[in-house]
Design goal:
The complex is a heterodimer. Chain A is an all-alpha fold. Chain A contains seven helices and no strands. Chain A is globular, with a radius of gyration of 29 Å. By secondary structure, chain B is of the alpha+beta class. In chain B, the strands form eleven sheets. Chain B has a five-stranded mixed β-sheet with strand order 11-1-15-25-26. The longest helix of chain B is centred in the N-terminal third of the chain and has 33 residues, at 20-52. The N and C termini of chain B lie far apart (99 Å). The chains are: A mainly alpha, B alpha+beta.
């Protein structure tokens, strides 16, 4: 009879052992639910929240916006703004001419017209008041300035991929703004890709007519990129161009 | 099991009071208990193992480009609202809460949802967009402060699925909309919060309700049992299966709490079938049926989803809308009866339409051509399992608005040309890119754009005909001491003996020769004789080298017939080639993917923008100028029957022998499109490049309304006044004088000024030049 009991007891012991886990506790971190679709920012704003011990009745739909976000903040970049070229660009005609109601902000005749984001009718120029002591970056249009600023912050914190990505975003917004291409070239340099740095600087030059300071900076960057690639004669050539531009 | 059969040695005599048969019964029941216990241990291991690990494999999700908003952006209100509709924004009188939008004249207020991008988090925020014409005139927060740039969340355009796959968007229990949990419990399992996995009460009630012919709103299974059935077991129906299910349900309840089980249920439940793809979980169901994130659903939508659990196919709101509506309203009645919602709320919800997205709208379209491109690029970097199981998030450059316009252009044009004999058998492919970024924005691989299958945009290798010609002329224009746009070319017939001994005798399309023409005219009018002569003069191998520098990696034999496009290329290869022409001579590898994030939103991989200068901008400036003349005065001039003259475009027609292939490739400043029409069996079509592909292209450009081409003039290019008949230097006020770009030093010496009179008008074929060059 006892012999009969042994396996039974063993089984029961094993079972109870298994079932001593407290109700509600989760033995293993659930990696499945971390894959939630909560890039749509949820109420708690987090991705990894897994404990669900709240009473279900208390489920409510709150849409608190997480603080300390990375929203676009317009500010003057600390460094990086190497040039102080005024933003008068090459003689590009504005996009489709639709008489639009851009209102009466002070408008200069020099259009900041970079490809796909030309202004409706009167291209917004730089308010003459601000043309004085501000850095070149600051004179850029709102979205480009904001994105360059973000990229600057990302680069400063060592996130070169993020900076690169933000600059490419800026390039999509203003594909023909040479300052964006210049910054892209700088970040490629920082990433150790001298060949691409040179290419972006060269692309920048094709859009930098009439902006001698920026041209000089671009040539200087090309010179550095060529040095990195072991092309010292090419670097010398670029340095000469940099001097001519100024 | 075997242990119970082991020999036994009794230590004690059996107690006297027991009958032998009673002892046997006891023993047998003990055996049964042990067996059952062992089985329970086994089940328990299964229950815990699967529930605590990674519960589901999730296919990679592919997202379109996020729509960027900023002041001065070219975007029509109509396109913007199309995008909002596709993203499932609710139209409300006042926008409150994420995913809501209100339209007042030219102003749209909306609350964005926020999204995790590669570059960081885009927070949800209220935004006001004011439109003027086709531009964003102002972007501000609703309190009036200016915003510089805002991104909407991107449209999900597909996934990387293996065949016969379960798909889901995982949700957390705190992301569910109001009423969802209450409704689910009220309809499926009223005792959910009090039972231990099985509910004898609800089984009894189900039996009673069902047999007494009442409303069949109650099933016998608890939510836990339903979860166990779907999660662990097959759909086999048997008593053992039912008992196993009950045991597992109790074991599950033993280890996990109610919200945890409910959350798993919300993600596991089957709600519909989409072709090969099984739609699981309320997260995906919400996107699949309403095009909205689950958290934003309203009472009537919640009721519909919960009602569908009972029979996803029977109550499918797209196929069986009446049944679905009846079921939804029944669920709403239950909610009122159970006190979950008030009579007023239920009454209001019943008045709402089903609200499911309709086929053909952006939210409910598939884009197999582009997804195919994405898959191929991903397969170079990832294993199939990574793509189908890890829930990766793929961010692409796909522009759904341009895609819809491209598809509409193909459909409209075929409809318009349907009278042409044989047009029904003609297939189509199209590639749309942004030449300034090298990104693919839209792709059509089949005339029926929603059909997955042979992707002609990527795989149809067809003779490109005259599309090759810009490479011939560019090769010449790179030698400014020998060739300018106004060099004279002979367009007389000739024949050459090729290296293979065959005699090659090209002909013009109209089978006539045109005497002596300007170099640019040979391209503009696509004259074969002058082009072939020029190509032979610069050398076929040099033309092929130019082609390679333009980005064509395919190798071609150096036969003279290559000069007129005998070589075959795919539409995407043509796009790569023209991209370099459009982008100032900088080549860009075509990109469809921008970045990849992990399921948790961590950056994984980036596909960076790369460029390489392959040509001096000056020669590109000249070839663009000649390609603009294709549109103004040459084979592409029909575009200006439809498009405004102010829209400067450059492009080239292509027609292969006997009109087997109809091509057009061309670009504006910010948009490049390649269109191919032809038959899969390579038969003759009723179309030339101009009468077929160009018509689709024109229709597309009219819808897309791009920016005029405007390449900055390089330093080493000068504009010179020349006589439009002789090509000699002239003066601005001479009759017939036109401005032409030249690489510095190659321009003709300036001509003498002509007295008094301005240039005569209405005399030459090049009068338009003045209007255009002004």
């Amino acid at each position: 009879m006892n012999k009969w009991l042994i396996p039974a007891v063993a089984a029961v012991a094993l079972l109870s052992g298994c079932s001593t886990v407290q109700r509600g506790s989760i033995p293993v971190e659930d990696s499945g639910t971390a894959v939630s679709n909560s890039e749509r920012i949820s109420a708690n704003g987090g991705f990894r929240k897994t404990t669900v011990k709240r009473p279900v009745q208390a489920q409510t739909q709150t849409q608190a916006i997480p603080q300390g976000d990375t929203g676009v903040v317009v500010m003057v970049p600390g460094g990086g703004a190497v040039t102080s070229a005024p933003i008068s660009t090459s003689p590009i005609t504005p996009g489709p001419i639709t008489p639009g109601p851009i209102d009466t902000s002070p408008v200069q005749s020099a259009p900041i017209n970079q490809g796909s984001y030309s202004m409706p009718s009167t291209p917004s120029g730089i308010p003459s008041a601000s043309a004085g002591g501000l850095s070149a970056d600051e004179q850029l249009d709102g979205p480009v300035l904001a994105l360059l600023t973000t990229a600057q912050q990302q680069q400063a914190s060592g996130d070169l991929n993020g900076a690169s990505s933000s600059l490419e975003r800026a390039q999509r917004v203003a594909p023909r703004e040479p300052q964006v291409l210049y910054r892209l070239a700088q970040v490629r340099m920082a990433q150790g890709d001298a060949a691409q740095a040179e290419q972006f600087a060269r692309r920048g030059l094709t859009f930098a007519n009439g902006r001698p300071d920026l041209q000089a900076s671009l040539w200087e960057l090309i010179a550095q990129a060529r040095e990195k690639q072991g092309d010292s004669s090419g670097a010398t050539l670029a340095r000469q161009k940099a001097k001519v531009s100024l | 099991m075997t242990r119970t059969r082991s020999p036994r040695t009794p230590k004690k005599p059996p107690s006297r009071g027991l009958h032998p048969w009673l002892g046997w019964a006891l023993k047998l029941s003990l055996v049964g208990l042990v067996v059952l216990a062992g089985f329970a241990v086994y089940l328990d291991a299964i229950v815990q193992e699967k529930f605590s690990g990674k519960r589901w494999t999730i296919p990679a999700k592919v997202y379109a480009r996020p729509l960027e908003l900023f002041t001065g952006q070219k975007l029509s209100k109509e396109d913007f609202l199309t995008e909002l509709d596709a993203l499932g924004y609710r139209r409300e009188s006042v926008s409150n809460g994420p995913g809501a939008a209100s339209v007042n004249g030219n102003t749209v207020d909306l609350n964005t949802r926020g999204f995790q991008f590669y570059e960081g988090l885009e927070k949800p925020q209220p935004v006001r967009v004011r439109f003027s014409g086709d531009y964003v005139a102002e972007l501000s927060a609703t309190n009036g402060s200016k915003l510089s740039v805002v991104r909407l969340e991107p449209l999900m355009i597909g996934g990387i699925y293996p065949k016969n796959l379960e798909d889901r968007i995982l949700i957390k229990i705190d992301q569910v909309p109001p009423y969802l949990l209450e409704t689910l419990v009220a309809v499926e399992d009223r005792d959910f919060y009090s039972h231990w996995g099985v509910s004898p009460k609800s089984i009894a009630r189900a039996v009673w309700v069902n047999t007494s012919g009442g409303k069949m709103t109650q099933g016998g299974s608890t939510l836990t049992q339903q979860l166990v059935k779907n999660f662990y077991l097959t759909s086999e129906r048997s008593l053992t299966r039912k008992l196993t299910e009950a045991m597992m349900a109790m074991l599950l309840e033993l280890h996990y709490d109610k919200p945890e089980i409910l959350e798993a249920y919300l993600n596991e439940v089957f709600v519909g079938q989409d072709g090969q793809r099984a739609v699981h979980g309320f997260g995906l169901a919400s996107q699949f049926f309403f095009g909205q994130p689950l958290s934003e659903l309203k009472l009537h939508q919640v009721a519909l989803l919960v009602g569908m659990v009972k029979g996803p196919s029977y109550y499918n709101p797209r196929r069986n809308p009446e049944r679905a509506l009846e079921r939804r309203n029944l669920v709403l009645d239950v909610l009122q009866e159970q006190g979950v919602a008030t009579a007023e709320q239920v009454e209001a919800a019943k008045k709402m339409p089903l609200g499911v997205t309709t086929r053909g709208k952006l939210a409910d379209s598939s884009f197999p051509g582009f997804i195919d491109l994405v898959k191929r690029q991903l397969r170079e970097d990832y294993r199939d399992e990574d793509l189908t199981e890890e829930g990766l998030r793929i961010f692409t450059s796909f522009d759904p608005i341009l895609q819809m316009k491209a598809e509409a252009s193909v459909n409209d044009t075929f409809k318009r040309l349907s009278g042409r004999k044989g047009s029904d058998d003609v297939e189509a492919a199209m590639v749309v890119t942004n030449p300034e970024t090298g990104e693919v924005q839209a792709m059509i691989g089949s005339r029926q754009a929603s059909f997955a299958g042979f992707n002609r945009a990527l795989d149809a290798v067809r003779p490109i005909g005259s599309l090759i010609k810009p490479a011939v002329y560019l090769t010449a224009l790179e030698k400014p001491t020998q060739y300018t746009l106004t060099s004279w070319l002979s367009d007389e017939s000739f024949s050459v003996k090729g290296a293979d001994g065959q005699v090659w005798k090209p002909q013009n399309y109209d089978r006539r020769s045109h005497g002596t023409v300007f170099l640019y005219q040979g391209l503009a009018h696509s004259y074969n004789l002058s082009t072939a002569r020029l190509g032979l003069a610069v050398g076929v191998p040099n033309v092929l080298k130019t082609l390679a520098r333009l980005g064509v990696t395919r190798e071609f034999p150096a036969f003279p017939s290559m000069l007129l496009g005998a070589g075959g290329m795919t539409p995407i290869e043509v796009a790569t080639m023209y991209q370099t022409l459009a982008n100032g001579g900088f080549n860009t590898p075509m990109r469809g993917i921008r970045s990849v994030l992990t399921a948790e939103g961590e950056p994984l991989k980036r596909y960076p923008f790369q460029i390489e200068q392959r040509f001096d901008p000056a020669s590109i400036y000249l070839i663009q100028s000649a390609m603009q003349r294709v549109m103004r005065e040459g084979t592409g001039s029909s575009v200006y029957n439809v498009l405004p003259k102010t829209l400067t475009l450059a492009g080239k027609t292509g027609t292969s022998n006997d009109s087997r292939d109809s091509w057009f490739a061309g670009f504006s400043q910010d948009l490049l499109a390649v269109v191919w029409l032809g038959r899969d069996d390579n038969g003759k079509t009723p179309f030339t490049g101009a009468t077929g592909a160009l018509q689709v292209w024109t229709s597309f450009m009219r819808k897309a309304d791009p920016l005029p081409l405007d390449m900055p003039q390089p330093d080493n290019v000068v504009q010179a006044w020349v006589d439009s008949h002789t090509g000699q230097g002239s003066d601005a006020n001479c009759p017939g004088a036109v401005q032409m770009p030249y690489i510095r030093g190659s321009e003709p010496p300036p001509g003498a000024a002509c007295g008094g009179e301005g240039p005569a008008s209405g005399e030459t074929v090049m009068d338009w030049v003045k209007g255009w060059m002004n």
